[in-house]
Amino acid sequence: MSLSVDYNSKFSHDYSNPTYGKEPLVGSVSKSNYRTTGMTFNNVVNWERSFKEVHNIRLMAGQEYYEYNTSNFGGSRSGVITDGYYEPDAASTLTGFSGNSDQYKLLSYFGSAEYSYNQRYFLSASVRTDGSSRFHPDNRWGTFWSFGGSWKIYQEAFLEEAANSWLSNLSLRASYGAQGNDNVGYYAYQELYSVGSFLGETTLHTSRLATPDLSWETNLNFNIGLDFGFFNNRINGTVEYFNRASKDLLFSRDLIPSSGFSSIDANIGKLKNYGWEFTLNGTPVLTRDWTWRLSVNATTYKNKIVKLPTQILQGAAETGLFVSLEVVHTDYNIGVGYRCTDFGCRTIFPVQRDFAVVRSFQPVADNDLALGRDRVKAILHRTLQVVYGIGTTTGIQRVAVRQERFGSQAAKQGCHSSCIIGT
Q1: Which residues have CB under 8 Å from 299's CB, separation 6+?
Q2: Helices and strands (H, E) in the chain, number of each type
Q3: C-beta separation of 336 from 356 below 8 A
Q4: Which of 83, 185, 256, 327 is in the most buried spot, having the most CB atoms within 10 Å?
Q5: What does each of the 423 residues of the chain score in pLDDT, given as a tens digit?
């Protein structure tokens, strides 16, 4: 059983003097506070047993509760009576005041089982179910799972002679599992309203449409790899294939302008990211006084849009916009972005850590609009990326010097021509 609490509070106090500076000089004071509290409560039970000297079983079951609260407020006043007074009460006119709070809750139940035979064959399985406050009670829970296995081939009898001389490791492993994503805002399923004023009267208008059917996005990951080592692991490495698919994407679906809303959140589409990873490590020099290690790694991957509903694009044909959809690679987690220039607009939707969907809207000529009404075109880019790294470590008489050089090379190939996905 464990409990952890993370508390953060940020206080700001800004002051503008009424004496020095550019006219008009009125002076202003503002204060604000932003506070977050995160709490994680865990209950975990473990059980392990070995029997007949070759069998080992390990079981685990647990529960986790996570709660995250934010609260902020602030205000500002102008018309500071004279310089040297820094509190809001020293100013005469209220220019602004706001405050809000948000809450997110996640309840999880999980378990896992592991089995090994003679420390040579290994099997594992896990399952968890998560309930998120961001979804409607009818669709709040998602169940995710994984299973895997590994085989230490070098311990087999037919490789005994090699294992006693030059073979240090030869292992095969594979795993397949599902992970959930609920990153869609605090109150994703609810209809929200904004409070304002007009001519001195209070107003209330809808700021977000209800989405009671919204639910978890699922990311499926498949990995299979081979680990090897030679000459007491002075030469070792891995070869691995991975295939990651995202389905029921949490995506903003466009709405027609006459609805009064630009988009609505929905579970739509499927993306795939797959490729190979290679790692090779070596120790060319290993003496009492000097050690030199060298490592090389490379990754190839492709990103592909497997499925996107054509209704996402339907509004573009009616408004004279050419729609371009592409998958781009990113080495960091990006957020939703929207950027417009004279040549069109680009909207970026994060999907996984490794890639995102970029949707571009560009004006088209009138003679192309007729074709657009009948057939909406989308360009689906599949890019073959190659990323590599080289590292070396040397040590002389217990003094270590480390040097690294990393680089990346992208060889873009694939579907660079127009692909029809809708009529």
Answers
A1: 275, 276, 277, 278, 385, 386, 387, 388
A2: 3, 23
A3: no
A4: 327
A5: 899 999 999 999 999 988 887 777 888 999 999 999 999 999 999 999 999 889 999 999 999 999 999 999 999 999 998 888 899 999 999 999 999 999 999 999 999 999 999 999 999 999 999 999 999 999 999 999 999 999 999 999 999 999 999 999 999 999 999 999 998 888 889 998 888 888 888 888 888 889 999 999 999 999 999 999 999 999 999 999 999 999 888 888 877 877 788 888 888 888 888 999 999 999 988 888 888 899 999 998 888 877 766 444 444 334 333 333 433 333 333 333 433 333 333 444 444 433 444 444 343 333 333 333 333 333 333 445 667 788 877 766 554 444 444 444 333 333 333 332 232
Question: Quick one: which of 359, 152, 363, 327 has its CA closest to 245?
Answer: 327
- pTM, rounded to two decimals: 0.71
Which value, in Å, is the radius of gyration of the alpha carbons in the chain? 29
Could you give the CA distance from residue 256 to residue 396 in angstroms, rounded to a whole number?
A: 69
Beta strands in 153-216 (DSSP E): 167-181, 192-198, 201-208
Token output for 324:
């371009």
3-class secondary structure per residue, 115-134:
EEECCCEEEEEEEEEEEECC
> Beta 192-198 vs 201-208: how paired, if at all?
antiparallel
Task: List the end-to-end C-alpha distance of the chain, in Å, as a whole number.
Answer: 56
| Of the candidates 421, 204, 195, 231, the residue with the CA atom closest to the CA atom of residue 307 | 421
